[in-house]
């Protein structure tokens, strides 16, 4: 029988998880985990906008259950206590406002690379990223990421000082039920563990700390060197490369062509009969 992560009935207590994460992530100034909350992203946004906490980041907030969890485009994140791993991090970031949209694909690239670190070599290519930041296992959605930014309040040090909030929801279990309720393919970590010995038995705190550390490192890379290295990193993870895709806005096709990676601003490039078009927003679907 293949071992699975600390899912459902075996999630660690919030108190023990905080202790493990403090050991794993000494550079994080505040780490909190609770049984339930409304939304970890919303909690961190509200906290970042107050004057009470000045330059004490990065922060990490997680919960076994989010009652008002949010995904991209205002979607509700469906979750059940024990079946999903959900947390958010807040970082100080000093970049021009023009570069802020690149945080979304950057967060997906870093998280996907971190999760690949738990896989056997022959399974790596099954874990990919669909622009802007959905993480897929064998083309089914394993994790979703929401990136939001806000001004750094009265503690702002310069014109390019922002606080970036990055939240992730990883399916640990329940993929079959979610696939039926959402009418689309969903994956979970138990499926990965069933066919990947290196991923089996991965403790929850290791998944959290790997993603949080990857985000921390990626933000520091972005601030020091810009987005220059990320298009190449993305190419190794790209679920859309060479695929015929439609780009939709409110259900209406606004562009169609062949996906060909991302540019230096984190935009998806779609090759059309009129040339390569950069995509900043929109829902991307693979054409059948």
Q: What is the fold's blueprint, element by element?
A:
Blueprint: H1 14-24, E1 30-37, H2 40-48, E2 59-66, E3 84-94, H3 103-116, E4 127-130, E5 134-137, E6 140-151, E7 161-171, H4 175-182, H5 189-195, H6 204-225, H7 230-235, E8 244-249, E9 252-262, E10 268-272, E11 275-279, E12 283-286
Parallel strand pairs: 1-2
Antiparallel strand pairs: 2-3, 3-7, 4-5, 5-6, 6-7, 8-9, 8-12, 9-10, 10-11
Helix pairs in contact: 1-6, 3-6
Summary, kept brief:
By secondary structure, the protein is α+β, with helices and mostly antiparallel strands. Helices cover about 25% and strands about 30% of the residues.
Task: Explain the overall architecture.
27% of the residues lie in helices and 31% in strands. It is of the alpha+beta class and 288 residues long. It has two domains: 8-235, Bira Bifunctional Protein, Domain 2 (BirA Bifunctional Protein, domain 2); 244-286, SH3 type barrels (Roll), CATH 2.30.30. It has a seven-stranded mixed β-sheet with strand order 1-2-3-7-6-5-4, sandwiched between helices. A hairpin with a 5-residue loop joins strand 9 (252-262) and strand 10 (268-272). It is globular. It starts with 13 loop residues before the first helix and ends with a strand.
């Amino acid at each position: 029988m293949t071992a699975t992560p600390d899912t459902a009935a075996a999630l660690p207590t919030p108190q023990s998880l905080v202790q493990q994460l403090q050991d794993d992530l000494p550079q994080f100034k505040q780490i909190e985990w609770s049984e339930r909350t409304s939304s970890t992203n919303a909690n961190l946004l509200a906290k970042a906008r107050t004057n009470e906490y000045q330059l004490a980041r990065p922060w990490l907030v997680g919960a076994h259950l989010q009652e008002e969890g949010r995904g991209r485009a205002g979607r509700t994140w469906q979750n059940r206590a024990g079946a999903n791993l959900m947390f958010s991090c807040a970082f100080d970031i000093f970049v021009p406002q023009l570069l802020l949209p690149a945080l979304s694909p950057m967060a997906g690239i870093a998280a996907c690379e971190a999760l690949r670190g738990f896989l056997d070599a022959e399974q790596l290519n099954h874990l990919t990223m669909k622009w802007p930041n959905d993480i897929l296992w064998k083309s089914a959605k394993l994790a979703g990421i929401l990136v939001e930014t806000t001004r750094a309040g009265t503690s702002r040090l310069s014109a390019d000082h922002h606080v970036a909030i990055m939240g992730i929801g990883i399916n640990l279990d329940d993929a079959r039920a979610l696939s039926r309720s959402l009418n689309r393919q969903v994956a979970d970590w138990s499926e990965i563990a069933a066919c990947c010995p290196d991923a089996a038995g991965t403790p929850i705190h290791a998944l959290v700390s790997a993603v949080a550390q990857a985000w921390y490192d990626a933000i520091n890379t972005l601030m020091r060197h810009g987005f220059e290295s990320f298009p190449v990193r993305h190419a190794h993870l790209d679920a859309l490369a060479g695929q015929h895709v439609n780009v939709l806005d409110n259900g209406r096709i606004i562009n169609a062509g062949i996906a060909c990676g991302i540019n230096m601003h984190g935009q998806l490039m779609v090759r059309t009969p009129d040339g390569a078009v950069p995509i900043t927003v929109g829902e991307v679907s693979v054409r059948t």
